[in-house]
Amino acid sequence: MASKTLLRRVLTTLSSSSIGNPKTPSARRCSSLSAASTEAPLPPSPIPPSIKSSTRVPSSLNEAEVAKFAAIADTWWDFEGPFKPLHWMNPTRVSFIRSSLCRHFERDPHCARPFEGLKIVDVGCGGGILSEPLARMGATVTGIDAVEKNIKIASIHAESDPLTSSIEYCCTTAEKLVEEQRKFDAVIALEVIEHVADPSGFCKSLSALTVPNGATVISTINRTMRSYATAIVAAEYILHWLPKGTHQWSSFFTPEELVLILQRASVSVREMAGFVYNPLTGEWSISDDTSVNFIAVGVKDSH
Amino acid sequence: MQSSMLLNRVFARRIVATTFRLFSPRRTLSNGGSGGFNGEGSVSDRVGTLEEATDQRDKDGMTSNIGHYDVAIVGGGMVGMALACALSSMPLTKNLTIAIIDSNPALRSKGSFKQDGVPDPRVSTVTPATISFFQEIGAWKYVQQHRHAYFDKMQVWDHTGLGFTKYCAKDVDKDILGCVVENKVLHRSLFASFQDTDIQKTIYPARLTSMAFESPYSSAVADSQPPNEQGISSGSAYPRDTSRKQHRECLAKLDLDDGSCLFAKLVVGADGAKSRVRETAGPKTTGWSYPQSAIICTVEHNIENSCAWQRFLPSGPIALLPMGDRYSNIVWTMSPKESTDHKLMSEDDFVRAVNHALDYGYGPHPQSTFLGLPSDRFTWITGQGISSVSEYFEVPPKVIKVASERMAFPLSLMHAHNYVSRRVVLMGDAAHTVHPLAGQGVNLGFGDASSLSKVIAEGIMTGRDIGELSLLKKYEKERMTANITMMALIDGFQKAFSVDVGPINLLRAAAFHGAQYIKPLKRNIISYAMGEQKWPLLS
């Protein structure tokens, strides 16, 4: 695969450890929060107690970024609204995650629910654009977001479909979940790391949430001239796909930087791919061109 | 009280589901027998239990039994059934719950018909592309147990004696060009194959009255429940305000004329040219009626016919399609007045008229020359001369008697501006009706069913809501191109042949000539007509 050769190039200087495959997903660690279970997929599902954000936990949150997203939260499920580019891109990134996780967890990619029995956390879930597809593919999904409004919207939206109503949505942060000693087979944070205040602390939290040999998935935007031209100038100022100020170019990461940050957090990146937009067909596709949008799949070290 | 109502509701629904499950294997067994679809016992049993289930519902006072489905197919005809069958045959989609809404008794009454009887005049010419789709979804084996007639030759000529072309399957290295099958055989085969599968299915023997979009959790159901049973996991119970409504996903709610009601993520309008789904969903249509009617019937020959014949007459084309067992099918397009005359005239007169139309009537036989010049003059264009005897003009076998009633129906062309909207899809005749000229109508419908089933599978692959507009747009994009191309071609053909003016006749003859003697063009036209490629002239 092209993306693999590219990755090998990136990883030449980095050592990697061998992985085994987890046999069964780990048992539930957090009794109260994981009450929303797959055993009873039909609503109404029991409600876990609310998480009060009163206790002070060191957080990688950037308050200004939180406020920015709260302002447009209402439009999460408006396919023509500010999150339109995300909706367009979503099937492409979901299909990459699907095939990547199917390979990692040795699941049959041709069945309707390959993630049955896997516990996945969607960090920075927003309105649930990724959590819902993951739940439809059979995963036991926890969606967390620092913006309370997002969580409300995500919960309301998910309840219409029995397949998604079992998603556990919490207004919390990755750090707090670490404190609660929650563990997941896969931890996914898409388009989040460029919005956090402390990226390396954030990666350490993601790693702490992942079971040994579990998967950590991060997607973000590269810091290249092309990403400046397309993700900021074109998307925010010319095409108005995104509200102005959505992204700060300086807070973007290059794939090499991301690999290093994850390496320090005991996550070895195994796969990397780019997402490219074709303006003629209006479609996104998976590519080995990581110069703008890219995704990295890593494996949590087993020791 | 509330909960016991709910329990009854669930119970009633279970009964419906179980009865279908129980009786489908029996049907399958009877289908395996020599007689084909004569499993009268099992079918009537099934109807019995279905009625019981309905009674049960009524006893419980459940006049509005609300079911929830992934896909509701309105119209269980050939195209709707093909979609149901396709969905139940693919690993990605076989876990979907399907409802079929159709009051057609064929889906519940006894479906016996004898193989050796006279073929029904309502037939379709299925292309090899359709045949392989049927094979994929497990329905072709049932077609093969019944009457079907493959043909490997097709002769098309016109009344001026100038235009003539003959297609052979071997020109494109294939064994067949197509197969003529009675519509009822196609439908029953799809239904049998659908019953074989263990997909969760419910058939509603009713008609659609209205369709709305609302959340199944809004109004009475949601409000009657305590707030903390809503499945929200974030802790606080949110006020049931307008913002709640705003973010709630709406499903399609279908009300049926028997008082039942159901919710679906995706509603498929496969309910024909007068589609109720299209009327309710509101896509605009473009259409016009041809000032023509078609008369169809089954005829008998002395010998078996194995070629599809089509001749363009001044009033419209006449087609003679092989049906097997010395039977053929006639589709004759003419003015409405003529069609009434031909329907009412005596059988002997009609047989005479048919034989006349397929032989020397309206004009001479075509020569194997173009404009009186021997065709070998054109070898510099075509690369080679006439290669085999089969390229020569033949007169179709004589008709000796009419074997069925003669049916006449008006022709029209209609195309919906949109095939999809949120949670709604149109397929087959509900989206497009074409002139029955090339027998392509139903093939376009099966193409729709195949495409839609694959788009739904793709949606499930990426965990999408299958009623999402951006997903359904993929189906529309794919099928609109294919359907418009074919419709324009058929309509163009129809218009080109309905004039009888010297220069146009010549042009037509030149086009025919090109189609007959320029080999790559000919191969191209054949494989387009076989449904193997998207565009008629580019490859």
TrEMBL record, chain A:
It comes from the Eukaryota. Its main location: mitochondrion. Pathway: Cofactor biosynthesis; ubiquinone biosynthesis. Residues 27-37 have a biased composition (Low complexity). InterPro entries: SAM-dependent_MTases_sf, UbiG_MeTrfase. The keyword Membrane applies. It is an enzyme of class 2 (transferase). Residues 16-56 are annotated as: Disordered. It is a peripheral membrane protein. One of its GO terms (molecular function) is 3-demethylubiquinol 3-O-methyltransferase activity. Its cofactor is Mg(2+). Component of a multi-subunit COQ enzyme complex. This is Ubiquinone biosynthesis O-methyltransferase, mitochondrial. It comes from Acorus calamus. The gene is COQ3.
From TrEMBL, chain B:
One of its GO terms (molecular function) is FAD binding. Pfam families: FAD_binding_3 (PF01494). Keywords: FAD, Flavoprotein, Membrane, Mitochondrion, Mitochondrion inner membrane, Monooxygenase, Oxidoreductase, Ubiquinone biosynthesis. Component of a multi-subunit COQ enzyme complex. The gene is COQ6. Pathway: Cofactor biosynthesis; ubiquinone biosynthesis. The lineage of its organism: Eukaryota, Viridiplantae, Streptophyta, Embryophyta, Tracheophyta. It is found in: Mitochondrion inner membrane. It comes from the Eukaryota. Its EC number is 1.14.15.45, 1.14.15.46. One of its GO terms (cellular component) is extrinsic component of mitochondrial inner membrane. Residues 219-236 have a biased composition (Polar residues). Its cofactor is FAD. It is an enzyme of class 1 (oxidoreductase). InterPro entries: FAD-bd, FAD/NAD-bd_sf, Ubi_Hdrlase_CS, UbiH/COQ6, UbiH/COQ6_monooxygenase, UbQ_mOase_COQ6. This is Ubiquinone biosynthesis monooxygenase COQ6, mitochondrial. Belongs to the UbiH/COQ6 family. It is a peripheral membrane protein. Residues 219-243 are annotated as: Disordered. FAD-dependent monooxygenase required for two non-consecutive steps during ubiquinone biosynthesis. Required for the C5-ring hydroxylation during ubiquinone biosynthesis by catalyzing the hydroxylation of 4-hydroxy-3-(all-trans-polyprenyl)benzoic acid to 3,4-dihydroxy-5-(all-trans-polyprenyl)benzoic acid. Also acts downstream of coq4, for the C1-hydroxylation during ubiquinone biosynthesis by catalyzing the hydroxylation of 2-methoxy-6-(all-trans-polyprenyl)phenol to 2-methoxy-6-(all-trans-polyprenyl)benzene-1,4-diol.
